[in-house]
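Render this sequence as a predicted structure.
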Amino acid sequence: MVQPSQERQPSRTGRLPRRVTDRVEDAAAWALTATALLVLLGAVLGGVGGYGGAVDRARTAAHGRTPVALFDAVVVGASAGVGIAIVGCLVLGSAWLGLRRWLDRRNAADWGREWDLIEPEWSGRKR
């Protein structure tokens, strides 16, 4: 069995060190995923509500269910659900892209600061 040397102990997690921006990105991804599930639920409930409202209007207007009124109710419900889903996707996608842009700028600035410290030793200019 191979034992690790004393000078190089493996990390507790076995992963590379993580930046704060990596943790922010992970948390945002989880939050946006949970929000996307809520948007999906809202789209389904909005579609069902739109369908129910259209069926009620068709019943009161025609005093019964006709195939055309039922089809109209399905179209209204599906349109409401798809519309809610599209708006939700646009808002969440915009939030994700904005966050990624901010994180990329921050990572580039951090990388520049780190490189300013490491480059002289790496290139051999500092002895």
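Summary. The CA atoms of residues 64 and 107 lie 63 Å apart. The chain has a mean pLDDT of 83.
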